[in-house]
Amino acid sequence: MAGDAPEPSFTTQVVHAGERKPAPAGVPVSTPIYATSTFTYESMDEVDRVFEGTTPGHVYTRFSNPTTAALEEAVRVLEGGAGACAFASGMAALHAALFACDLTPGSTVLASQDLYGATLNLLYTVFGAFGVHTVTADFSDPAATGEVARSHQPRALVAETISNPLLKICDIDACAEVARSVGARLIVDNTFATPYLCRPLKHGADFSVHSGTKYFGGHGDVMGGIAVTRDAADTAALVGTMKLVGGILGVHEAHEILRGIKTLALRVERQCDNTATLAARLAEHPRVGRVYYPALIKDEMSGAILRRMLRPPYAGALVTIELRDNTRAAAFRFMDALRLCVRSTSMGDVFTGVLHPATASHRDVSPARRRQLGITDGIVRISVGIEDVTDIINDIEQALEA
Description:
Aspartate Aminotransferase, domain 1; alpha/beta; Aspartate Aminotransferase, domain 2; 5-stranded mixed sheet; globular; 7-stranded mixed sheet; 15 helices
């Protein structure tokens, strides 16, 4: 027929056949993986409106993607935030949250003294190289933290809901009050608690940051991070950093983390129950010198903070032990003897993972600083899984006797 376009050659057909069909009428019951780098539209006017932000849509996966957006919306809802932004790792999410606090040369960050080692290294080395100073305080003492804040006038405070590895519960309400008193922002790493146990934004935090690698993913097979904001303006700052720095979360990783979140409550409940049973058993073991587990702390104030910060009756899904033979050799001997539990540098997985902080998470912290914090060579952190708790106990007890 006159006017018909000529049939493309085979070489052209293999490039375009089957692609860019209209969206089906039905809505997928599960979020699909949008494995595409870019998105096309019917007209350039429409492209212009999407870039401008007047029409919702996606143009380039470094900026946004439907799969990643679904994960961000899920975590935003779970945290009760204004917005969320996903990143390639938890450290990238924390990095972006710090950038959103308007840090400039000469400004100060006030950090909890017993943060995850990599977090402190990020502050001291990366931000320190650009003239940002970091000071630390014992956030379990709000009065002392307030004094340090008034003295140094920080722009940001950085805390953990449950500290790594000694498992102190942060009084986020008190930290938020300190931050407000000096006009600072409060960033809380909520990885160890998850929003199932704690929602930091509801306690006054400005940012709640997660390593999605841990409980969100939950199966030891994916890496990612996400930051959630209390204020929509901060979400825009996170997105701006993501676009320019480029630490985006891949769509396949976003899909795996989103799928993992579906069973988050079920897994965390089982893990917390297992941890409570294991902690009580370890507290009576003659080879264990000390057990760090929030529910075992007897003082009234710590108990009140635990009940206010975490969903009752839970106290988290980690337990840290200090061996009575408080040496590196004893810790290695114990860990090498494990048969079921996994020697793992992560946590929050369905399997029980065991880590030696002095070798792994706090390796780059000086020995003197570790001793000051109470992180001795005989300390071992246990991330409790969903296995039968009797099997977990049997494995740990036989390893303690090795």
